[in-house]
Design brief:
about 45% strand, about 120 residues, four-stranded antiparallel β-sheet, seven-stranded mixed β-sheet, mainly beta, 11 strands
Length: about 120
């Protein structure tokens, strides 16, 4: 079910930054574990970073460690993915997904999805 909306993607130069947003008008996201996934052309969808309903964070992708962070704004019902020091390898469609259960790195664990936002890192 598409009950999430991502935004903030775009074209950025290597070394640049973007902040992705995930918002829902139907789900209270602070009651869900929310994970950012990404899917590069020709590759499977992979979990990147999760934030649980209690604020615990789980990084599923070692290549983004120290560059990406996840946060939640309860008043805005939004989950963010701050991406710094972007490289061409970060080019992908980024999706957010939510589950009532705990953080998990596999896409099949999630019931609610957004349509995705394209991130392209290129000079």
């Amino acid at each position: 079910q598409l009950q999430l909306v991502e935004s903030g993607g775009g074209l950025v130069q290597p070394g640049g930054s973007l902040r992705l947003s995930c918002v829902s008008s139907t789900l209270s996201l602070d009651s869900y574990a929310v994970t950012w996934f990404r899917q590069a052309p020709g590759k499977e969808r992979e979990g990147v970073f999760c934030i649980s309903s209690t604020g615990l964070r789980a990084n599923y992708m070692s290549s983004v460690k120290g560059r990406f962070t996840i946060s939640r704004d309860k008043t805005e019902n939004t989950v963010y993915l701050q991406m710094n020091s972007l490289g061409p390898e970060d080019t992908a469609v980024y999706y957010c997904a939510a589950t009532k259960w705990q953080c998990a790195m596999d896409a099949y664990e999630y019931d609610y999805w957004g349509q995705g936002t394209q991130v392209t890192v290129s000079s």
